From TrEMBL:
InterPro entries in the record: Beta_helix, PbH1, Pectin_lyas_fold, Pectin_lyase_fold/virulence, SO_2930-like_C, SO_2930-like_dom
Domain Right handed beta helix stretches: 137-309
Keyword terms of this UniProt record: Signal
Descriptive protein name: Right handed beta helix domain-containing protein
The organism's place on the tree of life at top rank: Bacteria
Gene3D superfamilies assigned to the protein according to its UniProt record, in alphabetical order: Single-stranded right-handed beta-helix, Pectin lyase-like
UniProt feature coiled coil, ranges: none
Gene source species: Pseudohalioglobus sediminis
Length: 788
């Protein structure tokens, strides 16, 4: 139509020109044809998620399919999500239309722990809100290059104990920038940066959190131009024991810290539960803290509190931990109306200041240097008006000291400058759909290793089974294996197979998973028996999960079986399946079984390793977690004959390095074998169900809790260990494991819960494993000693 119109205009112009022309010039204008403006160029890296039906699925698929350089743009509006989101690709941006305009509401979330987790580098989140996450709001882990800008995390309940623990939560990260954001209602800390390096937190507003902003066990941080109002404590700087990094070098300046008088609503057992209501700033056990040019007013307990770890009431057996704050320098702040109602700080402390002026603006416990003052280089220095330092509590008996005790200074700490990455990773040119289809068309009778580097849309594309519709037996050149003690997944049965390319071999490891070569495929199919008491009743095939060892590392792919059994389709976004069965106790049970999205799979399979060619930098990798020698050292049936699984792999020439004496392998007993040692059974169960995260290089490494089978049962294993970051998951309890008292043990409490913000493991199940909980309960109650 447009072409016809333009042609008519041109012809009309020529006719007018001919009618008026006498061979000379004409002053009449000549009609010009319309010129169509070129279309705006389409940015190939921009992925726009439209509002409407299927929003959650389309968003999850975009996050999973993202490539370096992609910008995923969210629309304006409020969107309900019932599962966690994840980003594990470098150099990705997730952007909304504004922190009030784009709202992701997780109030109905039932799957996953934190609502948005990021485990990759150079990721930017901006201009959207996360509302009512059941646990943590946004968590970065193992990331280098963390930027959160104009983000809002809010619990609409206000200051409620049942709220999640952390709003913005980078942990074990580097190069962190959090700016222009808002957090409301965290039951631990609104903005929390832990065990990280090179941090800038600026221009944020935090309110009605227990801790507004918390820097914990981190190095080289700056906190400035923030507003902390109506929290229990405005800004906290902590260094805690038994963690991977010691805290040092923090500058806190140009902040407004006002009216932080919200009663402490942290669940009992959390370290922030010791923060007195009405604390402007709290510095505990940290070295090299400089606090200057802040406005601190209307905080009922004190403007600034500087304390030793011992005052928390928690204990530690960390031999390298120094609980005393050192090299703290406070100067040039503005104070008004602090300490007017300090009873929550401590009644006995407040009683020391009965004279004019009441409690001072700055309170220092002095425990670390009682009887032996610090050397000059470690002193606590305060350069303020004398009315501020008129009397500062010092020593375990509350001795008053005057301002002269703090008359010293420390050199200014250097400004924190965030690294600029040397290069941005660029993804390879993606294959066309036609090229993927060709690769996913099997040739021959063996596994289709040619398709290893692509995500085939259906499971049959990898040709793993002689019968494509029967994933429980007859693997094409695959080796079946089982585990002595398996991971619990809602009572599902599992069929496991390993496929190793011809001529390649896996290597034995005494502690880690077998080291499989590039090209390996591990397949695990999940089924639910219809009747655990009647094998002939059959079972429902639910899903098949693949681990593919590609050239750049392992990839995780979930395939969901169609209910009519005609095949399994790639479901990157995961899903649910309603199941009903007769349990082994004769009862009828049911659940909405959760099929994890691809990123959730990666959460459990994540680990950190040194970067290739680097002795210092770490990178996140995906690893298998089940096929470890201690779980594989058992018999299976191959071609009608029983053989040890590890020995069979060695005989098939796909495993090298196997010890000649299989009895020398530290092997777990079956968790449900009543004749086996109780503690060994319990440790094996915790290993397979928990240690993939609770290990020094796992996703929960920041907890300081490590649960591998071979570890000694001590504080690091949970004995009398206080949690670092349990939030409401503590259940008001104080220790992970209390010998002799399972009811007082957080580990048992979390295993016995199915609440999204409490349960452990936090993903991978939708039911409580009653029998597994009973085992751990029996073991904990068998221990002796208790906790002080």
């Amino acid at each position: 139509m447009r072409i016809v119109t333009q042609l008519a205009v041109v012809l009309l112009g020529f006719s007018l020109l001919a009618a008026c022309s006498d061979g000379g010039s004409s002053s009449r204008p000549v009609a010009q044809p319309e010129v169509e403006q070129p279309a705006e160029p389409v940015d190939p890296n921009l992925i726009v998620i439209e509002a409407g039906e299927g929003f959650q699925t389309r968003l999850i698929e975009a996050l999973i399919g993202a490539e370096p350089g992609h910008v995923i743009e969210l629309p304006a509006g409020e969107f309900d999500l019932d599962t966690a989101l994840g980003i594990d690709v470098d150099n990705v941006t997730l952007r909304g239309q504004g922190l009030e305009q784009t709202v992701l509401n997780f109030g109905t979330q039932t799957s996953g722990g934190e609502s948005l987790r990021v485990t990759s580098n150079n990721v930017l989140l901006e201009d959207f809100a996360v509302v009512d996450p059941p646990s943590d709001g946004i968590k970065f882990k193992f990331s280098n290059g963390v930027t959160m800008r104009r983000i809002r995390v809010e619990w609409t309940c206000g200051a409620c104990e049942e709220n999640g623990a952390y709003g913005l939560y980078p942990v074990q990260t580097e190069n962190v920038l959090i700016e222009d954001s808002i957090v409301i209602g965290a039951s631990d800390a609104g903005v929390y940066v832990g065990q990280s390096d090179k941090i800038i937190v600026r221009r944020n507003t935090v309110s009605f959190n227990v801790a507004g902003i918390e820097i914990e066990n981190s190095t080289n941080s700056e906190v400035y131009d923030n507003t902390a109002v109506d929290n229990t404590g405005g800004i906290l700087v902590f260094d805690l024991p038994n963690l991977s990094r010691e805290g040092a070098r923090t500058r806190v300046y140009n902040n407004v810290v006002r009216g932080n008088n919200t009663p402490n609503f942290a669940p009992e057992g959390n370290i922030v539960g010791v923060v007195p209501t009405g604390t402007g700033m709290l510095i505990m056990a940290f070295s090299d803290v400089q606090v200057f040019d802040n406005v601190i007013e209307d905080n009922q307990s004190a403007a600034i509190v500087i304390v030793h770890y011992d005052i928390s009431g928690f204990t530690t057996d960390d031999p390298n931990y120094d609980g005393a704050p050192r090299r703290v320098y406070i100067s040039n702040n503005q104070y008004a109306n602090n300490g007017y109602e300090p009873a929550d700080l401590a009644t006995d402390v407040a009683g020391l200041f009965t004279g004019p002026g009441g409690i001072p603006q700055i309170v220092y416990d002095g425990i670390g240097e009682a009887g032996s003052p610090f050397a000059e280089e470690d002193r606590i220095c305060i350069n303020e008006d004398e009315s501020v330092t008129r009397g500062v509590i010092f020593g375990p008996n509350g001795t008053e000291v005057g301002s002269e005790f703090f008359n010293c200074a420390h050199a200014s700490l250097p400004e924190v400058v965030l690294d600029t990455p040397d290069e941005i990773l660029e993804g390879e040119k993606p294959l066309t759909q036609e090229e993927i289809a060709a690769l996913c068309t099997p040739q021959g009778n063996g596994p289709n290793f040619e398709a290893l580097e692509v995500n085939c849309p259906s499971l049959e594309g990898y040709n793993l089974f002689s019968d494509a519709l029967e994933p429980r037996r007859a693997p094409n050149s695959g080796i079946a294996y089982d585990l002595i003690t398996p991971l619990f997944t809602d009572y599902a049965e599992k069929y496991r197979f390993i496929y190793i390319p011809e001529g390649k071999q896996a290597a034995y490891s005494s502690r880690d998973s077998l080291d499989f070569p590039v090209g390996t495929i591990i397949a695990k199919t999940f089924t639910m028996p219809n009747d655990f008491l009647n094998e002939s009743a059959g079972e429902v095939i639910i899903e098949t999960r693949l681990l593919l060892h590609r050239k750049d590392g392992w990839a995780t792919l979930p395939y969901t079986w169609r209910e009519d059994g005609t095949g399994a389709d790639l479901t990157l976004a995961g899903g649910t399946r309603s199941l009903t069965w007769i349990h082994s106790d004769g009862s009828t049970r049911s659940t909405d079984y959760v099929i994890p999205d691809a990123n959730s799979c990666k959460t459990c399979h994540n680990a950190t390793r040194p970067e290739t060619g680097s002795g210092r930098n770490m990178e996140t990798v995906i690893i298998p977690i089940g096929p470890k020698a201690r779980f594989l050292n058992m018999d299976n049936v191959y071609a009608g004959k029983r053989a040890n699984q590890l020995e069979y792999m060695w005989e098939q020439d796909v495993l090298v390095g196997l010890p000649a004496d299989l009895d020398s392998i530290d092997t777990v007993p079956a968790w449900d074998d009543p004749a086996a040692d109780l503690e060994a059974r319990a440790k094996g169960y915790l290993d397979i169900n928990c240690a993939h995260c609770h290990t020094p290089d796992g996703f929960a490494s920041n907890s300081g809790l490590s649960l591998e089978y071979w570890r000694e049962v001590d504080t690091a294993y949970g004995i009398c260990k206080q949690p670092v970051a349990a939030g409401s998951g503590s259940g008001g309890l104080k220790n992970d494991i209390v010998p002799g008292d399972a009811d007082a043990s957080i580990t048992v409490y979390r295993m016995d819960s199915n609440e999204p913000d409490v349960r452990m493991p936090e993903i991978g199940r939708s039911l409580v494993h009653d029998e597994g909980v009973a085992l751990i309960r029996e073991w904990v109650n068998s221990l002796s000693g208790g906790c002080e």
